[in-house]
Write a structure and sequence with these properties.
Cellulose synthase operon C C-terminal domain-containing protein; Serine Threonine Protein Phosphatase 5, Tetratricopeptide repeat; 18-stranded antiparallel beta sheet; alpha+beta; elongated; TPR_rpt; two-stranded antiparallel sheet
Length: 1088
C-alpha cells in the first residue's frame, strides 16, 4: 500500500467507533483533533439523515469550536453541509399518545469505526482509480470517491480494497445497509481484521436502518424482534438500538417498558442523559395517564419538563394530555412555550397541538415560521395536509351554500394535482359529502388503480364506494386489500363495508335489512366499534332510543373518548327520558373536545329539546366563538368563558372509569331490551359546570355561522324578558241582542324565562257588544215570556219590558307560568263586569316515552259564547241579575308521534254553574290521527282526521231567566279532515289549516224558566188556556256540512321584534264565528 493511502486511511478510519460510543486512541494531538472532528461530522450526517436538522447543526457548531475553518461544518450551520440521502418517507404523525411523532425518537449515530489495522498496498489492477478514490475520500469528496471506487470495481469485481473503500464511503453517507454488504464482501476477499470495526458498525447501523424500515411499514412486532436482536448483539454503543426499542414500545402503548429502556440508554457513555431522562419521564406520565392516575401523570410530565426544558415533545404530550382533560387554557400555555422556544421541532409540535384544538389556520401560521431549509419531510407533509384540509373544508362550505358545481370543480382540481395523489381517498370522500357520488366513485376507482394506497386509504375508499352505492366495486377494493394488508386490517375493512351499506339502507328506511347486515358483520368482527356505532344510529332511527343508548355505551366501554358516540348517547338518552345519562355524555364530549363547535351545537340542540332556552343560547354562543376561532375569525375571547380551562375540575371521572372498564362482552348488542337506557352496573357520574360565552354580531356568507346565528335569534326570542301586545276581533253570528256577539280585545303580556318555562303577567281588555234585542227577541229575554203569554191569553197587545243594548267591558288580569312539564294560570274574569269570578288552570304534560306524551288538567274558566254566559245581564222585568256561567272540570289526553305521524285522544268532564242559572254537566271525547305527507327543507304538509263527541245534561242555549245562553247540545258528533301547511324560513313562519267535515247535533225540549218553578207553572197554566202560549223551547236537530279554517303568520322584523297575525273561520256548532288577531312580540335584552 502506498504511503499516501496509508495516511488517508489512518485519518479517515482512526476515529474509533460511531458517534456516541467508542474510545479514541490518538497517536498525537493533531490526529486526536482530526478524530474528534470526524466523529462530530459523522454525528451531524446521521442526524441529517434522520431529518433532525436541529441536532445536526449542534454537531456542526461543536466542529467549528475545534476546527473553525472546517468547510463542511460551515455549510451545515448555514443550512448546507454534506448532502444526505432523503429521509425515509413517513406518514404524518397522528397526535395520539400511542404514536408520538417519529422525528423525536431517532437514534443517535455518527461516523464508522476504524479497521483494526490499515489495509495492505493496493494491487496494480485498477490501482490508479483506487488510489485516487482514497485521496478523494480523504478530501471529503464522497461522490467522486464513490465513482472512482466503482470504476476500480468495474475493472475487477474482486478488488477487496475498492470494495472496502466504497463501503467506507457508504458509511460516511449513512447508507448503512449498502456499507454492510460491501464490507462483508471485502472481508470475505481480503483480511477480515482489516475491515472488522467498520463492518461491525455497518452491521449494527444497517440493522437499525432495516428495523426502522420494518417499523415504518407498520410491522411493530417484526421491528421489536429486530431491535431486541440489536440490543443483544454486543455492540459497544447500544444506545441507538435501545432508543429504537423504546420508540417501538411507545407506539405499542407500552410506556412503562419504554421508560425502563430509556433508563438503560441513558447509562450508555456519551448519551444525552438529560434528554433521555426527560423522555423516560414522559413515558412514565403516559403510562400513568393510561391507567387513569392523573396525579402521577401530571407529576411525571412536570418532572420531564424540569429535566429537559428544551424538549418540545414532552411539552407536546403534556399539552395533549391537558387538552384531553378539558384544560384547554393550560394547553394554550404549552403552545405559547413551544412557540417561544422557536426551533423547527418546537414549532411543529405547537402546530400539531393547534390542529388538535381545531385551529388549522393557527397551525398553518406556526408551520410558516419554520425555515424551508429546516423542514423535515414530516413537516412538509403536515403543511401539505393543512393546506389540503383547508381547501377541502372550503369546498364543503361551497356545497353547503348550494354551490355544488363550484365545490366539485375545486375538488376535481385537487384530485388532478400530483402533489395530492396520496390524498385521493380523502378528496373522494369530500366529493361524496358535496353531493357528487358519481365523481367520488370515479376518483375512488382512479385511486385504487394507482396502487399506492395504505390501510387508512383503503378504508376511506371502501366507505366511499359503499356509501355511493357501488357495492360491487367496494367488494373488489376489499379483495385487493386482502393481498396487501394484514388479516386484522382486512377484518376492519369488512366491517366498514357492512357499516356503509347498512347506513345507506338505514337512510332509505330499510331498517330490518340494515339490522341483519350489521348482525352478520358483528359475527365476523365481534369487537367492531364501527358496527356498534351504526347499530346505535339504527336503533335511534327506528325510534328505539333505550336500545340505542345501550349500544352507544357498549361502544364507549371500548373507546371511552369517542365523541360521536358520546353525542349519540346524549341524543338517545334524552329521547328515552334519561336526562342524567345524557348530561354525563355531553360533559364527557365537551371534556374530550373542549373547542369542537359541533359538540356545543349538539349540546344546544339537547338543551333546546328540554325547553332550557337560556342554556341553549349559551352553548350556541360558545359554539360560535369556537367555530370562529377555528376559522381565524375574530369573534371574541374564549379564555374567560371556558369553564374547562380550570384545573379545579380535578380528575376526569369518566376517563378513569371508562379506560379501565372491560368491554361488556356478555351483552349481545343485537338483543337489547326496551325501556332501560343503562347497561348493567352502569353508574351516572358527577356533573361539570356549563360553558359561558359572549354575544357577537353575525358574519355573513358562512353556512355554519348562518345556522348558529339563526338558532340564536330564535332562542333569544324564546328566552329573557319579553313584551307582547295583541289586538283582536271576534264576530259570532246569531240573533241580535241574544246570541250574536262582537268582541274587541287587546292583550298586554310581560314575561321572562324561569327554569324551563316562562313566568309573566297578563292583562286582557275586552269589549263585548250584542246590540239591542228585537221585539221578537225581547219576548224571549229575561222574564218577558210571562207578559207575552198573558197578553196572548188576554188577546191584548204585549206590554214588554224592553232590555237595553247588551254591552259589557272590562280588563281581566292573570298571572301565568308556562313550561315544558307544567302550565299554570290564575286570574279573574274582567274587572268592569258587574261581578268577578276566579279563573285558573293547571296542566301537567309528562312525556311517557320518546314518542308518547300525556296531558292532565283541571280548570275553571268563563263560558264566553255570549254576553249572557260571559258577563251576565239583568232581567228588564224584575232587575234580577243572571248568567255569568263558569265551567269547572278537567281532562286527560294521550298522544303518540313518530317522525311527524301520530294519533291522539282526550276525554274531559265539566260542570257548569252560573248566577240564577240551571246547573249543567258535559262530557267530551276527541280522537284523531295525522300523517306527514311532505317534509321539505322549509315546509311540511300534514293531513289528518278527527272525531269529536260532546254531550250536555240539559239544553242551556236560550236567553230567558234561568238559561245560560251557551251552546249545550245533548249529543254532538262531528268528523273533520284537517290539512295543514307549515312554512318556516329565517324570518317568516306561515301556518295554514283547512278542516272540512260534517256535524250532527240535537237539543232537547227545555222549559222557559228552568230555575223558577212558580213562573214556569204560571206559563204552563196559561198554555192550557191557549195553546199559542209558549211554555217551553222546542227540540232541535241538525245535520250538515261544516268547515273550519285558520291562517297564522309570524314575521321577524329585527332580531328581537316579531309581528304576528292570525285569521280564523269556524262553522262547527250552531254559530259561524270569525276571529282575527294582530300583535307584536318585543324581546328585551339579549336572552342571556
Amino acid at each position: 500500500m502506498s504511503r499516501q493511502v496509508k495516511r488517508s486511511l489512518a485519518l479517515l478510519l482512526g476515529a474509533g467507533t460511531l458517534a456516541m460510543g467508542g474510545t479514541i486512541l490518538p497517536t498525537d494531538a493533531a490526529q486526536a483533533q482530526a478524530t474528534g472532528v470526524e466523529t462530530l461530522l459523522a454525528q451531524a450526517r446521521y442526524w441529517r439523515s434522520q431529518g433532525r436538522e436541529d441536532r445536526a447543526r449542534d454537531a456542526y457548531r461543536r466542529v467549528l469550536q475545534i476546527d473553525p475553518a472546517n468547510a463542511e461544518a460551515r455549510r451545515g450551520v448555514a443550512g448546507g453541509g454534506t448532502p444526505a440521502p432523503s429521509p425515509r418517507a413517513a406518514p404524518r404523525p397522528a397526535p395520539a399518545p400511542s404514536a408520538p411523532p417519529a422525528t423525536r425518537t431517532g437514534p443517535p449515530a455518527a461516523a464508522p469505526a476504524r479497521p483494526a489495522s490499515r489495509p495492505a498496498a493496493p494491487r496494480q489492477t485498477g490501482g490508479e482509480d483506487r488510489a485516487a478514490g482514497f485521496r478523494a475520500l480523504e478530501a471529503g469528496q464522497l461522490d467522486r470517491a464513490a465513482n472512482l471506487f466503482q470504476a476500480a470495481l468495474g475493472r475487477s469485481r474482486s478488488d477487496d480494497e475498492a470494495l472496502g473503500g466504497l463501503g467506507i464511503v457508504r458509511l460516511r453517507q449513512s447508507r448503512f445497509v449498502e456499507a454492510r454488504d460491501l464490507l462483508t464482501r471485502a472481508t470475505a476477499l481480503g483480511s477480515a481484521a482489516q475491515w472488522a470495526d467498520a463492518l461491525r458498525s455497518a452491521r449494527f447501523y444497517g440493522g437499525i436502518e432495516e428495523a426502522r424500515a420494518t417499523l415504518a411499514a407498520g410491522d411493530l412486532t417484526g421491528a421489536e424482534t429486530q431491535a431486541q436482536a440489536l440490543v443483544r448483539s454486543g455492540f459497544e454503543t447500544p444506545a441507538p438500538a435501545l432508543l429504537l426499542l423504546a420508540e417501538i414500545y411507545e407506539q405499542q402503548g407500552r410506556y412503562a417498558d419504554a421508560a425502563d429502556i430509556l433508563a438503560q440508554a441513558g447509562a450508555d457513555p456519551g448519551a444525552e442523559a438529560g434528554q433521555l431522562q426527560s423522555r423516560a419521564a414522559r413515558n412514565r406520565a403516559l403510562a400513568a395517564a393510561r391507567t387513569g392516575d392523573a396525579e402521577t401523570a401530571e407529576a411525571a410530565f412536570v418532572n420531564g419538563l424540569l429535566l429537559d426544558p428544551a424538549d418540545p415533545w414532552i411539552r407536546y404530550e403534556f399539552g395533549r394530555w391537558l387538552i384531553a382533560r378539558g384544560r384547554a387554557a393550560e394547553g394554550d400555555s404549552m403552545i405559547a412555550a413551544l412557540s417561544g422556544i422557536g426551533t423547527a421541532d418546537a414549532l411543529y409540535a405547537a402546530a400539531l397541538l393547534q390542529e388538535e384544538l381545531g385551529r388549522p389556520l393557527e397551525a398553518q401560521r406556526l408551520v410558516d415560521r419554520i425555515p424551508d431549509a429546516e423542514r423535515s419531510p414530516l413537516v412538509r407533509s403536515f403543511a401539505g395536509t393543512l393546506q389540503l384540509d383547508r381547501q377541502l373544508e372550503e369546498a364543503r362550505a361551497l356545497a353547503a351554500q348550494g354551490q355544488a358545481g363550484q365545490a366539485g370543480a375545486t375538488l376535481r382540481r385537487l384530485a388532478a394535482d400530483p402533489a395530492y395523489a396520496a390524498r385521493r381517498p380523502q378528496i373522494a370522500q369530500a366529493l361524496l359529502d358535496a353531493g357528487d357520488p358519481a365523481g367520488a366513485t370515479e376518483l375512488a376507482r382512479a385511486a385504487l388503480s394507482g396502487g399506492a394506497v395504505d390501510a387508512a386509504g383503503y378504508e376511506t375508499l371502501v366507505r366511499v364506494l359503499a356509501s355511493a352505492g357501488a357495492d360491487a366495486e367496494a367488494r373488489a377494493a376489499l379483495a385487493g386489500a386482502r393481498q396487501r394488508l394484514g388479516p386484522t386490517q382486512v377484518e376492519r375493512l369488512d366491517a366498514v363495508l357492512a357499516v356503509s351499506r347498512a347506513d345507506r339502507l338505514r337512510q332509505d328506511g330499510r331498517l330490518a335489512e340494515a339490522f341483519d347486515l350489521l348482525q352478520n358483520a358483528w359475527r365476523v368482527e365481534p369487537n367492531s366499534t364501527e358496527v356498534l356505532f351504526q347499530l346505535g344510529l339504527l336503533y335511534e332511527t327506528g325510534n328505539m332510543p333505550a336500545q340505542g343508548a345501550q349500544a352507544f355505551q357498549l361502544l364507549l366501554a371500548r373507546e371511552p373518548d369517542d365523541v360521536p358516540a358520546l353525542l349519540g348517547l346524549a341524543r338517545t338518552a334524552t329521547a328515552a327520558g334519561d336526562n342524567s345519562l345524557a348530561d354525563d355524555a355531553v360533559r364527557r364530549a365537551m371534556a374530550q373536545a373542549p373547542e369542537d363547535h359541533e359538540v356545543y351545537l349538539a349540546a344546544a340542540d339537547l338543551a333546546r329539546a328540554r325547553g332550557d332556552e337560556r342554556r341553549a343560547v349559551r352553548l350556541l354562543e360558545q359554539a360560535r366563538l369556537f367555530y370562529g376561532r377555528s376559522q381565524g375569525l375574530a369573534l371574541g375571547d374564549l379564555s374567560a368563558g371556558n369553564p374547562f380551562a380550570s384545573s379545579a375540575l380535578g380528575t376526569n371521572p369518566f376517563r378513569a372509569q371508562q379506560a379501565l372498564a372491560p368491554a361488556p362482552a356478555s351483552i349481545n348488542p343485537f338483543a337489547l331490551t326496551a325501556g332501560e337506557t343503562r347497561l348493567p352496573g352502569a353508574m351516572a357520574s358527577a356533573g361539570f359546570p356549563q360553558a359561558y360565552a359572549q354575544d357577537e354580531p353575525a358574519l355573513a356568507a358562512d353556512p355554519v355561522l348562518a345556522r348558529i346565528d339563526s338558532d340564536l335569534r330564535t332562542l333569544r326570542n324564546e328566552a329573557g324578558p319579553r313584551v307582547e301586545v295583541d289586538a283582536g276581533f271576534r264576530d259570532r253570528s246569531g240573533e241580535e241582542g241574544l246570541s250574536a256577539l262582537s268582541e274587541l280585545n287587546g292583550t298586554a303580556r310581560v314575561s321572562t324565562d324561569l327554569g324551563r318555562g316562562r313566568i309573566g303577567v297578563e292583562a286582557e281588555l275586552v269589549a263585548l257588544d250584542s246590540g239591542v234585542p228585537s221585539r221578537s227577541a225581547q219576548a224571549r229575554f229575561g222574564r218577558n215570556a210571562t207578559a207575552e203569554a198573558q197578553a196572548i191569553v188576554d188577546e191584548l197587545p204585549t206590554p214588554l219590558a224592553l232590555a237595553p243594548t247588551q254591552h259589557a267591558a272590562g280588563v281581566a288580569p292573570s298571572l301565568f307560568y308556562a313550561g315544558d312539564l307544567l302550565d299554570a294560570r290564575i286570574g279573574t274574569t274582567p274587572l268592569g263586569f258587574e261581578y268577578q269570578e276566579i279563573t285558573g288552570r293547571l296542566e301537567l304534560k309528562p312525556r311517557l316515552g320518546p314518542s308518547t306524551s300525556a296531558r292532565a288538567w283541571v280548570e275553571r274558566q268563563a263560558v264566553d259564547d255570549t254576553i249572557l254566559s260571559y258577563a251576565g245581564t239583568r232581567d228588564p222585568v224584575t232587575g234580577d241579575f243572571w248568567g255569568q256561567v263558569m265551567q269547572t272540570g278537567g281532562g286527560v289526553s294521550l298522544s303518540w308521534d313518530q317522525n311527524g305521524n301520530g294519533v291522539y285522544g282526550d276525554l274531559a268532564y265539566h260542570q257548569y254553574r252560573g248566577r240564577a242559572v240551571a246547573n249543567n254537566d258535559s262530557l267530551q271525547a276527541n280522537v284523531g290521527g295525522y300523517l306527514l305527507l311532505h317534509q321539505g327543507a322549509n315546509d311540511r304538509i300534514i293531513a289528518g282526521a278527527n272525531l269529536n263527541y260532546q254531550a250536555y245534561d240539559n239544553n242551556q242555549n236560550n236567553f230567558t231567566f234561568g238559561h245560560g245562553g251557551y251552546f249545550s247540545p245533548q249529543t254532538f258528533l262531528a268528523v273533520s279532515f284537517p290539512l295543514r301547511y307549515i312554512h318556516t324560513s329565517d324570518r317568516l313562519e306561515v301556518e295554514l289549516q283547512a278542516a272540512p267535515g260534517y256535524q250532527s247535533f240535537d237539543q232537547d225540549q227545555t222549559a222557559i224558566y228552568p230555575t223558577d218553578a212558580a213562573a214556569q207553572a204560571q206559563l204552563d197554566a196559561l198554555k192550557r188556556i191557549n195553546t199559542d202560549v209558549r211554555s217551553y223551547y222546542d227540540a232541535l236537530s241538525q245535520t250538515g256540512f261544516a268547515f273550519s279554517g285558520r291562517g297564522r303568520a309570524t314575521y321577524q322584523v329585527s332580531p328581537r321584534t316579531r309581528i304576528v297575525g292570525d285569521l280564523g273561520y269556524d262553522t262547527f256548532g250552531i254559530f259561524n264565528e270569525f276571529t282575527s288577531t294582530i300583535g307584536i312580540r318585543q324581546q328585551l335584552g339579549n336572552g342571556d
